[in-house]
Specification:
321 residues; 14 helices; 4 strands; globular
Length: 321
C-alpha cells in the first residue's frame, strides 16, 4: 500500500519520488509517529488517549517558556518530556483510581491541558520562537547529507518499543490485559499498574513529539497539537492495531504512520486543503475499523466452524456404536 501511494503521487509529480524529497518529508509527520508508538500500547490494553495533542501543546509551551526564562534549551527539552510523563501519569491515575472510562477521562484532560497551553502562551504573542540553531538541527538536520536526524531517532525508538512489546515481561502483560483483563486480574497481575504505565509512556512520547515539532517549525504554539489525536489513533488503526484491544504491533504502527504521512504529503503537493485532508483521515479511520470488524467476523466464523467440525468428529464414533 505504501509503495502504491508513492507510485501514485510520483505519477502526478515525478519530483515526489526523489529519495531526498521523500526522506525530508518524513520530518513533517514523524511527531505523529512518536505518539503512535505509545498509543499502540494504550489501545492494546483496551484504552484510548485523546489528550496526546493537548499534552504535546502544553509540553511545547512549557519548554519554550523555560527557555525564555534562561533555562538551557536542552534542559528545557528534557523537562518537557518529563512533564509529558507526569501528565500521562495523571491520566492513568484518573482512569485506574476512579474507574472513569479512558475515552471520557482523556477527553476531559484534552480540554484541560489544551486550555492551559493556550493560557500560558497567550500571555505573550501567541507563539514562542528564536530558538538556538543547535536545537533547530534536531528537527531539520540530516546525517550523510540525506537522512534526517529525526528519522534515525524515530527508528531507534520504534525498535526499542518493538523489543519491549514483543520480548519483555511488560509487553506480555500489555497483551494479557488487552486480551482478558479479568483473567489477568485473577492471575495476580497488577492490571492497574500496567494500564497506568501505558499512559505514562503516552505522555512521555507527547513530550518527545513536542520537542521535535518545536525544532522543525522553529517555534511553539498553544495550539500546536490541536487535532493530532485523530491522526495518531488513525495511524495505529491503519497499521492493524485492534481498536478493541488485545492485538497490534509496533511494526504496524510504524507502517501506519508512514501510510498516513506519505498520503498527507501527497495531498499537500496537490494543494488539498487541511480541512479536506481531515475528511480523508476520517474515511481512513472508518475503513480501518470496518476492516477489523469484517476480519474479526470471519475469524469468529472460522473458529465456530472448526469447533463444530471437532464436535461432529467426536460424536461420530458414539453414533456408530
Amino acid at each position: 500500500m505504501l509503495i502504491v501511494e508513492i507510485v501514485f503521487f510520483g505519477i502526478l509529480s515525478p519530483d515526489f519520488i526523489n529519495l531526498q524529497n521523500l526522506l525530508t518529508s518524513t520530518e513533517n509527520f514523524l511527531p505523529v509517529g512518536f505518539m503512535a508508538l505509545s498509543m499502540t500500547l494504550v489501545i492494546i490494553t483496551g484504552g484510548i488517549d485523546l489528550s496526546v495533542g493537548s499534552m504535546m501543546s502544553l509540553c511545547g509551551v512549557i519548554m519554550g517558556l523555560l527557555w525564555q526564562h534562561g533555562v538551557n534549551i536542552w534542559v528545557a527539552a528534557v523537562l518537557a518530556i518529563f512533564l509529558g510523563a507526569c501528565l500521562g501519569f495523571i491520566n492513568g491515575q484518573i482512569i485506574v483510581r476512579t474507574g472513569i472510562q479512558p475515552l471520557i477521562a482523556t477527553l476531559a484532560t484534552l480540554f484541560i491541558y489544551g486550555s492551559l497551553a493556550l493560557v500560558l502562551v497567550g500571555q505573550g504573542e501567541g507563539s514562542i520562537y528564536g530558538f538556538p540553531q543547535s536545537y533547530l538541527q534536531l528537527g531539520t538536520g540530516v546525517i550523510l547529507k540525506v537522512i534526517p536526524i529525526e528519522l534515525v531517532i524515530y527508528a531507534v525508538v520504534a525498535l526499542l518499543y518493538g523489543f519491549i512489546l514483543r520480548y519483555s515481561s511488560f509487553g506480555r502483560q500489555v497483551y494479557f490485559v488487552g486480551n482478558n483483563e479479568s483473567a489477568a486480574l485473577y492471575s495476580g497481575l497488577s492490571v492497574n499498574r500496567v494500564k497506568a504505565m501505558t499512559y505514562v509512556l503516552s505522555g512521555c512520547m507527547s513530550g518527545v513529539a513536542a520537542v521535535f515539532m518545536g525544532s522543525y517549525f522553529a517555534s511553539v504554539r498553544g495550539d500546536m497539537g490541536s487535532n493530532y489525536e485523530l491522526t495518531v489513533i488513525t495511524a495505529c488503526l491503519v497499521g492493524g492495531v485492534n481498536v478493541f484491544g488485545g492485538s497490534g504491533t509496533i511494526a504496524g504502527a510504524f507502517l501506519g504512520t508512514f501510510l498516513l504521512g506519505i498520503l498527507q504529503q501527497g495531498l499537500n503537493m496537490l494543494n488539498v486543503s487541511s480541512v479536506e485532508q481531515s475528511v480523508v483521515t476520517g474515511v481512513m479511520l472508518i475503513a480501518a475499523v470496518g476492516l477489523q470488524q469484517i476480519s474479526g467476523l470471519f475469524s469468529r466464523n472460522r473458529r465456530r466452524s472448526k469447533a463444530m467440525n471437532q464436535v461432529a468428529m467426536d460424536t461420530a464414533p458414539s453414533a456408530r456404536d
